[in-house]
Amino acid sequence: MIADIRQKFEKRGRTMTPSNRKQALLPEGAAILPNPTGSAPGVIWQPRPDLTLMTFPGVPREMQVMWRETAVPYLQTQGWAESIIYSRTLKFWGIGESTLAEKVAPLLAQENPTVAPYANNGGVKLRISTRAATPEAAIACIDPVAEQIQAIAGADYYGDDDDTLATVVGRLLLAHHQTVGVAESCTGGGLGQLLTTAAGSSAYFLGGVVSYSNEVKQNLLGVEADTLEEKGAVSAEVAEEMAMGVKQRLATDWGISITGIAGPDGGSDTKPVGLVYIGLADPNDAVTHHRYLFGTLGGRDWVRHLSSASALDQLRRRLI
Asked: Which terminus of the chain has a smaller tally of CB atoms within 10 A, N or C?
């Protein structure tokens, strides 16, 4: 077996012969697996006829190339890779793991394809997996189940696999030929940072204002002093005025705002830590708000993350 792999590499003009020093460190019957994209080699060893061990470097891109060029061909020649395990991950925001699992309970009980729920950084994932002879056959098995789940979840479903809230919102804004600006208080720029994780975001994200002080809210965003005095900086009214203010100042189609109490201090009986208001001003100058109570269990950074992601999600829901 090892000789066959060595011969395969020699035909490609490569060699499996390491330096004498490295070879001396290997178990008897083992050989070096060359690394075409890096310096760390792998090892293949068959300590007994029914057991083969392959080791690869930990750098993902190097390991992936070596896996494709060495492990997969070998497994296929041994008849161990006649089928593939294929998965598709559906992503959701705005619904809890237990609630979603209850809605799709009959699908969780089936055996092919399997459906498994996972909580993930404030969102929820459902992974659909099947074993098939080809990717095409696997996709044909998975697609009908994915369509059922999407129909059940409705707007709580936002994308698949590598999709993020930011990339999905970006595609929707581009499709509508619209732009967005943000006004942030408790998130300190986190919403803008999320938006700009998507490549090409400058085509639709024009900028933002981080407005921690009331003076900045008034002078840059046009929030009324009376509103701040009567309602407080963390309020539905201020969130709406912030959203409209940034929309007007940056001349965007949409304006999003976040104001809240991320903690650990600053809360009260009427406005506890974790209270967040998200404002949304649309292209027709209609303004709405959404109130969230994220609690204190996750800490300050958790409140900030949930606030930023939830603001993106509210824009996504309006765009669809």
From this structure: C
Q: Tell me how far apart the alpha carbons of residues 257 and 191 are, in angstroms, rounded to a whole number.
A: 9
Q: How many domains does the chain have?
A: 3
Q: Clarify whether residues 216 and 240 are in a common domain.
A: yes
Tens-place pLDDT, residues 98-126: 999 999 999 999 999 999 999 888 999 99
What distance in Å separates the CA atoms of residue 284 and residue 254, rounded to the nearest whole number? Answer: 9
Distance of CA 281 to the CA centre of its chain: 26
Domain check: are 16 and 58 in the same one?
yes
pLDDT for res 25: 63
Decide if 166 contacts 242 (C-beta within 8 A): no
Contacts of 222 (CB under 8 A, 6+ apart): 241, 244, 245, 248, 249
- How far is residue 69 from each of residues 9, 57, 133, measured CA to CA in Å? 10, 14, 20
Do 216 and 257 contact (CB within 8 A), yes or no?
Answer: no
Distance CA 27, CA 188 (A): 56
Res. 13 pLDDT band, cuts 50 70 90: very low
- Quote the pTM value: 0.81
Is the pLDDT at 302 greater than 90? The verdict is: yes
Tokens of 111: 């055996």
Of the candidates 151, 95, 88, 154, which has an alpha carbon nearest to the alpha carbon of residue 119? 95
Supply the pLDDT for residue 4: 57
Phi, psi of 18, deg, nearest 5: -85, 180
> What CATH number did the domain enclosing 292 receive?
3.90.950.20
pLDDT at 305 over 60: yes
